[in-house]
Amino acid sequence: xxxxxxxxxxxxxxxxxxxxxxxxxxxxxxxxxxxxxxxxxxxxxxxxxxxxxxxxxxxxxxxxxxxxxxxxxxxxxxxxxxxxxxxxxxxxxxxxxxxxxxxxxxxxxxxxxxxxxxxxxxxxxxxxxxxxxxxxxxxxxxxxxxxxxxxxxxxxxxxxxxxxxxxxxxxxxxxxxxxxxxxxxxxxxxxxxxxxxxxxxxxxxxxxxxxxxxxxxxxxxxxxxxxxxxxxxxxxxxxxxxxxxxxxxxxxxxxxxxxxxxxxxxxxxxxxxxxxxxxxxxxxxxxxxxxxxxxxxxxxxxxxxxxxxxxxxxxxxxxxxxxxxxxxxxxxxxxxxxxxxxxxxx
Length: 346
Hints:
- There is one protein chain.
- By secondary structure, this protein is of the alpha+beta class.
- The chain folds into two domains: 1-160 and 301-346, no CATH class; 172-297, Transposase Inhibitor Protein From Tn5, Chain A, domain 1.
- The protein is built from eleven helices and twelve strands.
- Strands 1, 2, 3, 4, 5, 6, 7, 8, 9, 10, 11 and 12 form a twelve-stranded mixed beta sheet that branches.
- Helix 4 runs parallel beside helix 11 (323-345).
- The model has no long low-confidence stretch (mean pLDDT 91).
């Protein structure tokens, strides 16, 4: 099936089988076999990636994407809500890709989890621990990266604002560094003798510029390519433990904040402003530039999701009524999409 998906990307089983009835039955039986699990499909891909990552400096980009599969019909088939409002139904995919930090090449898939939301409305977030929330996926993929990439030279896991979770920093594996775009204006400890409390964003905004960087901003939907200048600030910070749902967490976590913002308003779009929390030490402008460059590799996972959707497989057009079968198929596509990206980039 993997070879068929790579040779002829698509979401129709009949077309993948090239209208060969025997092959179509073979693919269908494979996907409907309860002995086949999405975990095993993703796990095999991770094992292959481990060998290719040996000796490399690896960036692991992780993110979540919604697979919208319809409305009332999808609901009747047992698909859970996705998107805002609950009118759309489908699955969610969380993936982690290994990327060569030196050349930006896609090494392989580290982890892929596809799930269907069931069980009704959840309790208020403050009454649940991280393990009881969907946000546990960020911690799980970081841990999986450390388990898979045992022979990599270095591991840096990068992720966007949704992964700004205190437990993500507190429980990270010792071999894996993090770069996370900050979302929450957390309390931080300031001062050595007196435990004074400040807010993260106001603290970094009050610092003088450490220097400026020249960057090329690529084109994106609704945005032209441009050259720009970024003002850089950085500082070590000690994040305070959250006030709610954090009984098992340390009182503080020490990180570094790297703040970069465009010095002029971008034409046809918002100016760049990234607040990046990292476990890497940053003591000068060169090291700050390295954090920015590593974070920018996160864009590869956006290309990856595009490949699975309108850019290649059109996974959301799959007409599979059984959510469990669709989970296996979506996982197989998640693996094949990496191979397609590698072929395109090659």
